[in-house]
Amino acid sequence: MNEKMKSLLIGAASGAVLGAALAWVASEVDDEVDETGQRNSAVAQLGPGDYIALGISILTLARQFSNMLRKS
């Protein structure tokens, strides 16, 4: 197996694991009941600023990986 294919497989596997972990955390239901009598998930409690911060964090992570690859 060549290096490019190995890198793609490692990236896909690590992305799948990270995505599954984030989905697990996001699917946790809060034990408290809101005023309508329903339990809110963590995703329902996020606002637009939280999504922007998450996007910036993902771009920062991608930039750090790029810098690591340039150094080697």
Number of helices: 2
Q: How many DSSP E strands?
A: 2
- Biggest sheet: strands, sense, closure? 2 strands, antiparallel
Specify the structural class: mainly alpha
Instruction: List low-pLDDT spans.
Output: none
What is the overall pLDDT average?
81
Backbone CA Rg: 18 Å
Order of helices and strands: HEEH
Shape: elongated
Helical proportion, percent range? 55-70%
Oligomer: single chain
Strand order of the largest sheet: 1-2
What percent of residues are in strands?
5-15%
Gap between N and C termini: 21 Å
Structure description:
The protein is mainly alpha-helical. 67% of the residues lie in helices and 11% in strands. It contains 2 helices and 2 strands. It has helices spanning 3-26, 48-71; strands at residues 29-33, 39-41.
SSE layout and pairing:
Blueprint: H1 3-26, E1 29-33, E2 39-41, H2 48-71
Antiparallel strand pairs: 1-2
Quick recap:
The chain is built from two helices and two strands. With 72 residues, the chain is mostly helical. A two-stranded antiparallel sheet has the order 1-2.
